Fold:
Amino acid sequence: MGGFFGAVTNGRSAVLDVFFGTDYHSHLGTSSAGMAFWDSEKGFSRAIHNIKNTPFRTKFENNLHEFSGCSGIGCVSDTDPQPLLVRSHLGVYAIMTLGIINNAEKLIEEQFSCKGVQFMSMSSGKVNCSELVAALINKARTFEEGISKAQELIDGSMSIVILTEGGQLIAARDAMGRTPIHVGRSDDGFCVSFESFAYEKLGYADYKELGPGEIDVISPDDCRVLKEAGKDMKICAFLWSYYGYPNSNYEGTNVEVMRYRNGEVMARNEIVNGNLPKVDCVAGVPDSGIPHAIGYANKSGKPFARPFVKYTPTWPRSFMPDNQQVRNQVAKMKQLPVRELIEGKKLLFVDDSIVRGTQLRETVEFLYDSGAQEVHMRSACPPIMYACKYLNFSRGNSDMDLLARRVIQELEGDEGQKHLDEYADGTTERGKCMLSAICEKFGFDSLGYQSLDGLLEAIGIDRDKICTYCWTGKE
Ligand code: SF4
Structure:
């Protein structure tokens, strides 16, 4: 995934706004981060750092004295280092992007057909996404035309933020609005932000949320639409259920509120269907499973508890060692049991989702090792049947990596892959078979998934505007 923040102010330094605003996006990216500023006297300044093992703030505080200017942008990213500084006939500008380009190789080859075109190569031989987007933009006469054309050519999803020579911001939300762009307004300027909460403490209030495909140009006194929003939207449902921060709002729905509601809907449906298990307490798999579990506990009347906690003071989420063995060890070290709440107890756990199931196995073993009598598992979203092809969402590379698809293959071979809808529905014979196969695999006493209707009810906006491709395979 990734996140970004940009600010443009009237005569006041934007450096600290961008520094703190970008830092508030650290939950969205763990690989690299960068900031760029434009100063009317000095021009551009920029820094990019690897943040795999050190948080954003620690990495960038030494750069702060090097930066100046009334406008700037910053980002955290799970992919390529950015923002990039580009010089073209459109001037010098800084660009950062968020999304995925599935047809990158084709677009690069097309560029090569114009003789003399070249890209900087990363050590993998790949081209930085933002550089490719810049190359597409630079083909056009204006930023507006270039961004529109780039978004049209890209198969995937691409939001773009540009800091121009002269200090304006240009913000372009991806064509289907899969990820958000918020604009905040203060007494002396504007900001753009992925997360709506990132600017409140910096003195900005909500101004607007860009619509799908909308392009705005922003200066200290004005936020002007360059290209109107399209009619159709497919905003990512996982913003609410998994990766958004609790106090963020998207399309008017708060993340934490949605998660409580989601857990309530799950418990309500189980009460109606008569399959609410008899448990001693309800718990969430930390961290994002917790609010779904609170909702479930509130509705089911079972007490909420925290039978295992994460040790976070010295293991920030961004700590991602390259070595797999060390990564596994770190995952283990982070999980701490509260034995008094586990021994001899019947526990119901709610996780935000069940993707490949790797982490889940360790969690369950750890609970049984700590003396749990029963472990019941609930997923706050339906079985994931398709890997995301719109965002750099690290949760699935190929469809057959997904737990549900693997289990279906084990149960029925290729024939099973033709009945995914049935398998996704826990009330059908196939759905029941999949649930019991997963229970057996992991040693759960029961397993339940939120239904798609339940998830959409909890989000609460027009369901046609929500991307559900992960579950339905429908675009
Ligand atoms: S496919 Fe899934 S993860 Fe990707 S945008 Fe759609 S809902 Fe989000």
Observations:
- The chain has 16 helices and 23 strands.
- The longest strand covers residues 91-101.
- Residues 178, 236-238, 388, 390-391, 393, 467, 469-470 surround iron/sulfur cluster (CB under 6 Å).
- The mean pLDDT is 93.
